[in-house]
Write a structure and sequence with these properties.
The protein has one domain: GTP cyclohydrolase I, C-terminal domain/NADPH-dependent 7-cyano-7-deazaguanine reductase, N-terminal domain (GTP Cyclohydrolase I, domain 2), CATH 3.30.1130.10. The mean pLDDT is 93. It has 4 helices and 4 strands, in the order βαβαααββ. Helix 3 runs antiparallel to helix 4. The radius of gyration is 16 Å and the shape is elongated. 31% of the residues lie in helices and 30% in strands. The two termini are 20 Å apart. By secondary structure, the chain is α+β, with helices and mostly antiparallel strands.
Length: 124
């Protein structure tokens, strides 16, 4: 039976320097990140012990270090780095990463944000 357990971190806000436009690299901008990981929560739900689950704090720190780290041209690349790092370092089955750029520099654009969602499974 497929696991249906998830840990979610929604609306994480960071300041970074990602983008293809020189202004984005120089001035930077806000990024909003959502991460959902699929993992078994059976053991922590029974034990009530933090050592038996995936630490929300550790997931947050991983995302923060990448989004606030070296610049990338594309959000796709940032999302891949986040998913690769979390898949490698945590006992999870899959991950979905959404990165939103609320202040996207598109002339005359009236939109809430531009963004990408990347979903990856362990071993793929």
């Amino acid at each position: 039976m497929k696991n249906q357990d998830h840990i979610m971190l929604k609306g994480m806000m960071f300041y970074g320097y990602h983008g293809v436009n020189p202004e984005e690299r120089l001035v930077g901008q806000k990024f909003v990140v959502d991460v959902t990981v699929e993992c078994s929560l059976l053991k922590p739900s029974l034990s009530d012990m933090v050592c038996d689950t995936v630490s929300y704090s550790d997931l947050f720190k991983t995302v923060k270090s990448i989004v606030e780290g070296p610049p990338h041209n594309l959000l796709e690349s940032v999302a891949k780095n986040i998913s690769d790092s979390i898949l490698l370092n945590y006992d999870i089955e899959s991950i979905s990463v959404t990165i939103k750029k609320p202040d996207v520099p598109i002339n005359g654009a009236n939109l809430d944000y531009a963004g990408v969602t990347l979903t990856r499974n362990k071993g793929k």
